[in-house]
Amino acid sequence: NIGSKNRMKYGLLGDGVNLAARLKTLNSLYRTRTLVSAAVVEDRAVAKMFVHRPIDVVAVKGKKQPTVVFEVMGDEPSSRNLLQKAAAKHTEGFTFYREREFGKAVAAFAHAGNLFAAGRHTERVTAIMRRRCNTLIEQPPAEDWDGVERLTRKSWEEVADETPEVMHDVAIGPDGQWRQDSTLGTLAVL
């Protein structure tokens, strides 16, 4: 009860609720639908039922302790195999990233992005990670680099309106609608 004796108001409080709220808003940044912490995908039932991939390691605003963030993806059985391959390749890229093997990570993320695109999945995460790795190749991180993104704000809605990402022949736009661009000959998400 967060109210008074005259007016009762019940709500949820605590670190778990705060983290869930931050993960919900991170969907805008990554253009994902369902982000969860590592604790969720460590549950065997969840791991068996859903395809998942690591997205990032973040320290949300107000916390110093980092959290590994995963995307949980569901799909039609007909395209599940391709989605699993794409998620596995993305996970490989994420492992290379955490091990400071940025060149290998870029290649794995590019391959994963192409697999996601082949399955008609809107994809921004692999483009973000490729860009981040390319920056780290050009400007190597300090020896104490831990790969944690320290988030300094609570909301990411304004990021969703940024310019579309382009991955090889796939353009990623803010509303997730696929179309063939006849002038460029590319499959685009606009």
Describe the fold and architecture.
40% of the residues lie in helices and 18% in strands. The C terminus is likely disordered. The longest helix has 19 residues. The strands form two sheets. A four-stranded mixed sheet has the order 1-3-2-4. The chain has a four-stranded mixed sheet with strand order 5-6-8-7, with helices on one face. Helix 4 packs antiparallel against helix 5 and helix 5 packs antiparallel against helix 6. It has 190 residues and is α/β, with parallel strands linked by helices. It has one domain.
Layout of helices and strands, plus pairs?
Layout: H1 15-30, E1 35-37, H2 38-41, H3 44-49, E2 51-59, E3 67-73, H4 80-98, H5 102-118, H6 125-138, E4 149-150, E5 165-167, E6 170-172, E7 178-181, E8 186-189
Protein name: Guanylate cyclase domain-containing protein
InterPro entries: Nucleotide_cyclase
Organism: Alexandrium catenella (Red tide dinoflagellate)
